[in-house]
Write a structure and sequence with these properties.
Blueprint lengths: L8 E7 L5 E13 L3 E6 L3 E4 L4 E3 L4 E6 L4 E8 L2 E9 L3 E3 L2 E13 L5 E4 L1 H10 L4 H20 L8 H13 L1
Parallel strand pairs: 1-10
Antiparallel strand pairs: 1-2, 2-3, 2-4, 3-6, 4-5, 6-7, 7-8, 8-10, 9-10, 10-11
Enzyme class: hydrolase
Protein name: Nucleoside triphosphate/diphosphate phosphatase
Catalytic activity: a ribonucleoside 5'-diphosphate + H2O = a ribonucleoside 5'-phosphate + phosphate + H(+); a ribonucleoside 5'-triphosphate + H2O = a ribonucleoside 5'-diphosphate + phosphate + H(+)
Length: 176
């Protein structure tokens, strides 16, 4: 697994447990890349869904991926504050100019006041049965969901007050 170059552009590939592609973000700027951590940003980037439909993101987003945690965090900068979309997922790998991970359906949406909603529990249960998620994966995902919720409540990592602002400032230096 290589390390992406800071300031370089990568794609983000989301897969499902059965190996099928779920979603591709065409262009994301790497802000920090190590073996364990990738922080990146995009704005108005094209996203391609598994069925071929495409759409463009509406606002700047700071993306947080870690090789040890089974979740990733997207902080979206909107006029009324930062909204977070958190995917319960496999840890990332970086391979041939693309960051890759498995999306495990469960999501957490966090609002600017740091209240949050757990989403897609029904989709998770359906896919868990259809794709035969091993019991150990189910346990890992649920434990990491608890860690994620702890981080949100403690405003830790990507949820800290200065995280999104400081990385967004860095992103703007690459856009100039």
């Amino acid at each position: 697994m290589g390390i992406p170059t800071e300031g370089g552009k990568i794609q983000i590939h989301s897969y499902k447990h059965d190996g099928h592609i779920h979603r591709i973000w065409e262009e994301t700027t790497v802000l920090k890349g190590t073996q364990n951590l990738l922080i990146a940003a995009n704005d108005r980037t094209m996203v391609t869904e598994s069925d071929g439909r495409t759409w463009i993101t509406r606002e700047p987003a700071i993306c947080y991926f870690h090789s040890k945690y089974w979740f990733n965090v997207i902080g979206m900068l909107r006029e009324d504050g930062v909204y977070y979309y958190c995917n319960i997922s496999s840890p990332f790998i970086y391979d041939k100019d693309a960051l890759k991970y498995i999306d495990y359906d469960l999501d957490v949406k966090v609002f600017p006041d740091m209240t949050f909603n757990l989403l897609d529990e029904d989709e998770y249960e359906r896919h868990r049965k259809e794709m035969n998620y091993p019991e150990i994966i189910d346990k890992i995902l649920k434990a990491n969901l608890e860690t994620l919720i702890f981080w949100i409540r403690q405003r830790k990592g990507p949820f800290s007050a200065e995280f999104i602002d400081s990385w967004y400032e860095r992103y703007l230096t690459y856009r100039r």
